[in-house]
Amino acid sequence: MSQDAWKQQLAAAIRRVEDLPSDLLVSLGGAQALQRVADEYPMMIPRRYLERIDPSNPHDPIARMVLPDPRELEVDPVCQVDPLGEDGYEVVAGLIHHYRDRVLLLVTTRCASYCRFCTRKRLAGRGWGQLTERQLDVVVSYLEQHGEIREVILSGGDPLVLSDQVLDHILGRIQSVPSVRMVRVGTRMPAVLPARITDGLAGLLARHRPLFVVTHFDHPRELGAEARRALELLVAAGLAVVNQTVLLAGVNDDVGVLAELFCGLQELMVRPYYLHQCDLTQGTGHFRVPLRQGIELMGQLRQRVGGLCVPQYVVDLPGGRGKVPVALQHVASMGLSGSVLLDPEGRPVPYPL
Length: 353
What we know:
Elements: H1 5-11, H2 22-27, H3 31-40, H4 47-50, H5 61-66, E1 90-92, E2 95-99, E3 102-106, H6 133-145, E4 151-155, H7 164-175, E5 182-187, H8 189-192, H9 199-207, E6 211-215, H10 225-236, E7 240-247, H11 255-267, E8 271-277, H12 291-304, E9 312-317, E10 322-325, E11 331-334, E12 338-342, E13 348-352
Parallel strand pairs: 3-4, 4-5, 5-6, 6-7, 7-8, 8-9
Antiparallel strand pairs: 1-2, 2-3, 9-10, 11-12, 12-13
């Protein structure tokens, strides 16, 4: 496959509801209802990823993750536009400094596919597009002035929608700061557009080690032949690869599905890292799995698979209160109407369901 095949696939991705296959539109209730959603939250689906959807199954998990759903327009009182309070921690454009020793750098607001459960639905597919050179200058200056920052996490959007040249430049500028000792690159590309993972890209990332690639697979059907090849390229280049998964109702809220996914990743030398409770993002309420059910699933998973296949189950607390593992020491109480979790400093935080 050509090193630039991914660019052609990205350009050909479906962005308009009217371009979806007619059988899918019929099973989902017609174009008009979906278009209202896509007008608010953009849609983009690579054609090869779309082929994984079973149009005869109205509850297909792949479809659920990428196709607009009228429920996205429902207002949920417990959900927020910016559930993690990231805007309040944005110190310069695109740079979020929440935890003392690490920062999150949003290098783009574009992705190869817009997940319907995205934490940053407020930005995905619209926002400001791509970090400019001037903005990068300001980011680097901030890093130089804050020697406590040892780790930079590249996110967005998806950093791998950027060209090799731009990505190489950004990584080089960040790693020119002596206090920056580690970089993470978060990406969903191996799952939704695996052609993006080329020999050239794998080599580029390897040259910037120490660097972790954090992939995002949510369902075992995403681990097709092309995705497996993409992961094998990254591992063969000597890169550390870990995966984060979001717990999603109707997609992977089943111990058998999770076990198949995590064991499949382990066999490819990819460590299941996090199982995220779906963030309380406006427009994603229909994806929420009750916390109690998530805890039960983790218990079932530990009985079924080995420890290297078990990720850490975490909640990113609302309002920027921090990420905590859902373990007994972080659960103050649980009831039918909600729970109370403890933030990293032991302060109680009410949590719905």
